[in-house]
Design the sequence.
């Protein structure tokens, strides 16, 4: 390993300048639970590391003026779960982030790192997509926003320009009667990578679904927003026929790999099963059945 320069800027502007100056040879460090392992394994060898955990807006959770939340990209799962209101409003997002690794990992790992690592199996990503989260990105050319599902391009590849940093996730305000959930299937009970992950966010009015977002992880090169599954749920009372249609839409959207964790057929079937289970939890949280 060659020498590494470690930078810990205190402001976002400083971080953007420092990162851009590395001209592609630098890496952002959030929790380091992916980055440091990849460096140790010799997969990555950055000349400069730009630590973003010392930047207040990257590690803060704030309520927005319209009743949503802005979560700094470097906020750890452990900090997220201690927020007094976030867990009540977006329990699925908080749970998904806290499925990552162990207690030790959760003390460091961030949703920003989970997204920017670019793994199709990242646990917080489908939950953020179901929540309709939007990321703020800042780079040498300024600031822009992207829905979370538009950030991954493929395994390990992102729709970020050189020098761009993910700054924050913005979760929208929640109408009354809303709930979200995230479930994953793993072959072991702990510390494993999702074979399938499913995020569901629902809004119910007198038991009828008025809004829905459904996402799947680990079944395609990038996280999937499954609009046909959401369409099948909207207008229904989550009866068996609507759930079966949504489950079929999830299975149809899958383009998984075949590996030792799960075959294509297995992942495709589990996607539908998880949709039903995740939707049931989201509905219960929304105050429905
Ligand atoms: C033992 C163990 C268990 C794990 N279990 C799980 C699991 O169950 N589920 C799961 O999804 N993952 C798991 N992981 C992977 C990892 O913990 C997560 O992906 C975590 O969310 C990464 O966050 P981080 O803050 O540590 O990212 P880092 O390691 O700091 O960064 C990850 C990548 O993203 C880039 N990056 C980070 N933040 C930004 C940003 N704001 N803008 C631009 N680029 C950025 C970095 O340069 C790096 O390439 C596990 C890892 C370990 C070691």
Sequence:
């Amino acid at each position: 390993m060659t020498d590494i320069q470690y930078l810990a800027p205190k402001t976002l502007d400083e971080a953007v300048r420092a990162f851009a100056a590395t001209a592609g040879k630098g890496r952002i460090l959030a929790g380091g639970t992916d980055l440091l392992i990849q460096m140790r394994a010799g997969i990555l060898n950055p000349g400069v590391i730009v630590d973003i955990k010392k930047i207040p807006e990257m590690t803060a959770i704030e309520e927005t003026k319209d009743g949503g939340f802005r979560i700094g990209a470097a906020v750890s799962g452990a900090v997220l779960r201690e927020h007094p209101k976030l867990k009540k409003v977006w329990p699925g997002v908080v749970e998904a982030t806290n499925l990552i690794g162990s207690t030790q990992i959760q003390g460091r790992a961030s949703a920003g790192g989970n997204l920017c690592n670019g793994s199709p199996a990242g646990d917080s990503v489908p939950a953020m997509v179901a929540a309709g989260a939007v990321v703020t990105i800042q780079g040498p050319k300024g600031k822009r926003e992207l829905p979370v599902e538009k950030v991954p391009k493929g395994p390990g590849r992102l729709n970020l320009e050189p020098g761009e940093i993910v700054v924050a996730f913005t979760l929208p305000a929640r109408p009354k009667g809303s709930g979200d959930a995230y479930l994953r299937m793993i072959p072991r009970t702990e510390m494993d990578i999702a074979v399938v992950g499913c995020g569901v966010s629902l809004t119910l009015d007198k038991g009828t679904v008025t809004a829905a977002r459904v996402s799947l992880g680990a079944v395609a090169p990038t996280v999937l927003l499954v609009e046909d599954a959401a369409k099948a749920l909207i207008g229904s009372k989550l009866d068996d026929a609507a759930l079966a249609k949504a489950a079929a839409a999830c299975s149809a959207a899958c383009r998984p790999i075949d590996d030792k964790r799960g075959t294509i057929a297995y992942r495709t079937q589990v996607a539908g099963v998880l949709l039903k289970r995740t939707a049931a939890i989201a509905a219960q949280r929304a105050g429905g059945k």
User: Anything to note?
Assistant: The mean pLDDT is 95. The pocket of flavin-adenine dinucleotide is lined by residues 27-35, 37, 52, 73, 99-101, 105, 108-110, 112-114, 116-117, 122-123, 165-166, 191 (CB under 6 Å).
